[in-house]
Structures are given as structure tokens and as C-alpha cells.
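Hi team,

Below is the intake form for Toll/interleukin-1 receptor domain-containing protein from Streptomyces cinereoruber. Please confirm the fields before the structure is written into the shared record.

FORM ID: S-0412
PROTEIN: Toll/interleukin-1 receptor domain-containing protein
ORGANISM: Streptomyces cinereoruber
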Amino acid sequence: MNVLRKVVEELEAKGHRPLVDQSDIPPGEEWRAEVVDWLARCDAAVVLLNEKALKSTWVRREVNILMWRRALGAPLLVIPVLLEGLGTRAVKDAGLEELGPVQFARTPAGAEHDALEVAGKVLRRFSELPSAAVGDDPMRGWLARIGLYLKEARTDPRLLAEAAKALEIEDHHLPAITTGHEGCLFLAHQFLVAPPARMERALDILAPALSDQTISRLVGSLTATWVHEEAARNVLPPPGGPPHAMTLLLNAHFPETAEDYVRRATCGAHRGYEVQSTGALPLGEDRVGERVRSWEDAVWQLFFDAEDEDDRWLPDDLHERKHYLLIDERRPDGDFADAVGLLHGLFSWLIVLVTTGNSVPAQPVRDRFDNAVLLEPLLTVAEEQTARLRKKKLVKLPRRLTGTY
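The structure came back. Fields below:
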């Protein structure tokens, strides 16, 4: 592809190190370990889009990881390029609407002068490349912590190699994984997208080489990774400002499942995110008003420790954090949706995550919310129950190793 070749040539000429994935990975096949590593580490990404790319599940997952990092506040430059006359409508229809507003060119295939023009525009954007630090990127920070925990297992490289095989990492990566901190960091990147069963097998293999404290911390960092990465991405507000009247609907039966979704979305970040839970079913005739008053009290008490109305004032650093209020409501109705709307009228910056039970609210109820986001792919009862049982098993891992469980 002329555009790809020219972009790579121009970036290399300016001292950048472009990494290119040209493999055509059919839907259902595994992530390439190298690409997962690149997506989690890169300071910038150029996304070349044509009709074929828009139909690719692989491209969608790549873009999701990139936009996930950006939504977490990472100083990551993402440059989409529309090729072969592709329009922003097609990008939106493919579910990649976040990339739609930026359009550098519409190039017919094989047009050398257009390829040069696109490469020049991409290069000019690289002059805006922000300085990156792990502390500014929660995903990279999470991966760094996992890599640090895994480093303890380097005393037995055989176990690191076996864990890598359990994650189905290609054999040619094994020598690098068993030597040096970079190898442990590479292995940590694979935990980011590993299916839960593989993660559990890998953790069981590594556990004998880790201290009880390290196992506990590693388990705590990994128990929410069962949540689908695309659903997790949608738990976060768009980058660039505070959330506005954001409502999330999750077809979960257990409230702790919602906590896993937030932990997965925020990569376990302790700074910048606050999560609280409440309930409060209406008892009288004023079903909407009772809910709103109860939730208003809960917001002040849970997030700001302000039980007395005289103490109810918002701190100056309010928008430096994201506030998630988890509400368990198995069958939300129109009154419930109206109450959430009134709550957002009081606290427009509040993110409300509603667990709706095993079913999805009917469309008329969903329409009563103000632009509510249904977290997809939807959960099944089996997935949620399996995740709960796996989590309990992993938490008890240190005791199982010592024979006290």
C-alpha cells in the first residue's frame, strides 16, 4: 500500500520507530502477542482505514485499546486516515465513530501524490506528540505493576515459560520472556486481553514462585480482567472533559459485577476514580421523588462525607476525579429512568451505573433515559456466575498453596 509505505518512510526519516502489522487475522483467531504489546506501549498510532479494515474484528479491537487508553487520560496521539474515498459515515456505521471527526484525505488506491500528501499530514501531526509518562497512563501503570509482580517469578524461568504457554503465546517469544524485566512486562501485556480461563491457568502455574503478598496483589489486579475489553471501554466517559449526565446499563445480577466493570475500565487505578453503591427502593406514592432524595443524600454522604446539609459544598478539585454511583435495580421502569434524569440535574458530572438483573430494559424504558449506554456485549448468567466463582477461587490461592484451604 503506497500510503503505508510513505508514512513509514517519512516517520523513519524523522527518527521515529514505526511498528507495522500487516497480518490479516480472521475473526475468531487469537491476538498477535506483538500487537498487544505495541498497543499498550506506543506513544502514537496511525490508523489506516479502508472498507476492508472497517469490517475487521481485529481492527475494531485495536482501535478499542487505543481509545481506551485515551479515555483514561493517556497522552496518546491517535491519527486516523481515511483511504479510498472512505467517508466518516462509514466509520460511524462500523462502530468507530470516535475516529470519524479526524479525516486527513480520501485517496483512490495507488495514487502516489495522494500518498505523499497523507504522509506529510501525518508527520505534521507528530509534531504534536505529547511527552508520555507511566504515571499519566493508567493502563501502562497497571501493566507495569503486573510486570513487577511477575518479576519475582524469574527465579524459576521454567514457570514463566509454562505460564506464557498457558496464555498461548508463540514459542519464539519464550526466550525473551524468561530473561529480564522487559520479558515480564511483555507477559503482563498478554494478561490485558487473555480469556479468563487462560489467565487462571497461567496464575496457577506462577503462584508457587511468588510470595503470598505478591500473589494477593497479582490476584487483585487480575480478577476483573474477565470483563470484555469493549464493554469496559464504554464504562469510561469520552476524553477531553468531565462526563455529562452519563448513564450506563449493565445486565448483571450481582452488584459486585458492576464494581468489576469499573475496575476493568480504569485498570484498577486508585487515583482519579471513586466508586460507591446505593439502592433505595421507593416506599410511598412519590416513586420518583423518593428515589431522587435518597440518591441525593447518598451522593453527599458517600462521596463527600457530608451528612449535614450545612456541609454540602463541592470541592474545588471535583473534576479531577470521575464519580461512579452504582445502583442495583433489577427491573428499571420509566419512573426509575425519570429519577435518574433528575439526579443528573443535580449532579451532571455523576456517572450512574445501573445493574438491571439478567434482562435488558425494554426499549421504551431505555428511551426514557438521557442517552443511556447499554454495556455490550451483554452478559450471560453463566458468564457472571463463572466469574464470581473464579474470583473466590483466586482470592483463596495463597491458602490453597499452603494446604490451609
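SUMMARY LINE: The chain has three domains: 2-132, 136-222, 229-383.

Thanks, M.
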